[in-house]
């Protein structure tokens, strides 16, 4: 029996489609996308989608699932449940696990656990360097054969410029993307929040914007030199946005992401020594928030990723300097982005592009569109469903969110992966 999504408003940026359509799923593929009433509902399971947006399944380009090695923070199963609740049909698993994903054995383990969980698709990212130690490159060929889609030492910048050059060259051989965590460690040594007035008033050592921007400039220069595909992770500063904007005009093969917290919060959120507002890169100033929003609006920033980074209370309910960096984001990302749409920064089609179509294109993975024949990965969104964030209701093991209590305008009400409903608000 097929699945008919009837009466919804289909937004598919890949087809420049923003109109009412009925969507028919046969097995694990999209079979038809037709004007309302053309597809007969007989002998099909019918989902009434009037008032809902039907979009290509959301894809998170930056997720920390913590497994293997830190299952007390998150597992592939619980992270998958959080992703499905947030409307994500696929997530990209960063390699800073224990052990680091620098071998085919770890990659295959992650994929096996993902199949066992039966949730969203999981795309592993391999480490740029062995153990993410920045000394020797990982074996990219073996990792790609095992199933990675990109390479990154996220959480640790590649400080050695020659090694980063070799990484871009080596990755190009296997048509792999390099995802760069841009941070100059010497400039930021000891910093625990953004360097500015708030850090001065709180007596906390600051991390200057220049620590990110210096490395963004270096990696853009190396991408120009090598022709390797470069993706800049979690962009947080006005200077980084401008550097990427210029690089794109110059034809450098670069893409870039930001995360919802960088267009929703400033370093003011740290007041009171709020460890749920501690992350790397840190929350910046109002001018940076405006620059991030402008970069999203003009296309300089290609996509929005969650940088979902769950921690337990053991790492967060401590003094600010000792607290772990990062927040959970899979369950709040869509609502925060719809808030951006509500504020007129992006259209809904542009937002879906940055959460689905662009990530699929950048990673080179299936999905990101609703064309017949494509995988039946679909997200149904109710843009009128206002809700209050309650971290105690999260599917993720993590509760480390600065958005607890926020009212958000809209949410996912159904998530479909390969033609199977893996989450429904009504169930």
**Count of alpha and pi helical runs:** 12
Percentage of residues assigned to helices = 25-40%
The CATH architecture term of the largest domain is Alpha-Beta Barrel
Alpha carbon gap, first and last residue: 20 Å
Tell me the strand percentage band: 15-25%
Question: How many structural domains can be distinguished in the coordinates?
Answer: 2
Full CATH superfamily name of the largest domain: Metal-dependent hydrolases
CATH class term of the largest domain: Alpha Beta
Describe the global form: globular
The total strand number stands at 18
Q: Compute the gyration radius: what is it? A: 21 Å
Q: Could you spell the SSE succession in H and E letters? A: EEEEEEHEHEHEHEEHEHEHEHHEHHHEEE
**Overall pLDDT score:** 97
Q: Please identify the structural class as seen in this structure.
A: alpha/beta
Main beta sheet: 8 strands, mixed
- CATH-defined fold name of the largest domain: TIM Barrel
User: Which spans have pLDDT < 50 for at least 5 consecutive residues?
Assistant: none
């Amino acid at each position: 029996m097929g699945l008919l999504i009837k009466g919804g408003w289909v937004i598919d940026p890949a087809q420049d489609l923003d109109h009412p359509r009925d969507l028919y799923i046969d097995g694990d593929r999209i079979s038809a996308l037709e004007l309302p009433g053309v597809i007969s509902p007989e002998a099909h399971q019918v989902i009434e989608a009037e008032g809902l947006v039907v979009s290509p399944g959301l894809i998170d380009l930056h997720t920390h699932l913590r497994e293997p090695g830190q299952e007390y923070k998150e597992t592939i199963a619980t992270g998958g449940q959080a992703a499905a609740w947030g409307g994500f049909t696929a997530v990209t698993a960063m390699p800073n696990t224990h052990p680091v994903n620098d071998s085919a054995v770890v990659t295959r383990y992650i994929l096996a656990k993902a199949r066992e969980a039966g949730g969203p698709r999981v795309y592993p990212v391999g480490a740029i360097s062995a153990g993410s130690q920045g000394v020797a490159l990982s074996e990219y060929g073996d990792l790609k054969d095992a199933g990675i889609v990109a390479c990154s030492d996220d959480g640790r910048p590649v400080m050695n410029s020659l090694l980063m050059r070799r990484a871009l060259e080596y990755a190009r051989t296997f048509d792999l993307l390099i995802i760069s965590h841009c941070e100059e460690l010497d400039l930021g040594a000891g910093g625990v929040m953004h360097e500015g007035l708030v850090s001065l008033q709180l007596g906390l050592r600051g991390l200057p914007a220049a620590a990110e921007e210096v490395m963004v400039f270096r990696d853009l220069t190396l991408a120009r030199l090598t022709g390797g595909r470069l993706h800049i992770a979690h962009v947080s500063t006005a200077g980084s946005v401008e550097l990427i904007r210029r690089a794109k005009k110059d034809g450098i093969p670069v893409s870039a992401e930001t995360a919802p917290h960088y267009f929703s919060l400033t370093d003011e959120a740290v007041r009171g020594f709020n460890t749920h507002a501690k992350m790397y890169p840190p929350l910046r100033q109002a001018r940076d928030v405006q620059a991030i929003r402008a970069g999203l609006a003009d296309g300089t920033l290609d996509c929005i990723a969650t940088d979902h980074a769950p921690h337990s209370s053991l790492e967060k309910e401590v003094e600010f300097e000792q607290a772990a960096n990062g927040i959970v984001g899979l369950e709040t990302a869509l609502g925060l982005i719809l808030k951006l749409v509500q504020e007129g920064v992006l259209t809904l089609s542009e937002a879906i592009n940055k959460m689905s179509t662009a990530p699929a294109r950048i990673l080179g993975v299936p999905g990101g569109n609703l064309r017949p024949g494509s995988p039946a990965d679909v997200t149904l969104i109710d843009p009128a469903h206002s809700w209050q964030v309650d971290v105690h209701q999260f599917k993720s093991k993590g509760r480390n969110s600065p958005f607890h209590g926020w009212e958000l305008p809209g949410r996912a009400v159904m998530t479909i992966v390969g033609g199977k409903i893996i989450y429904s608000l009504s169930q």
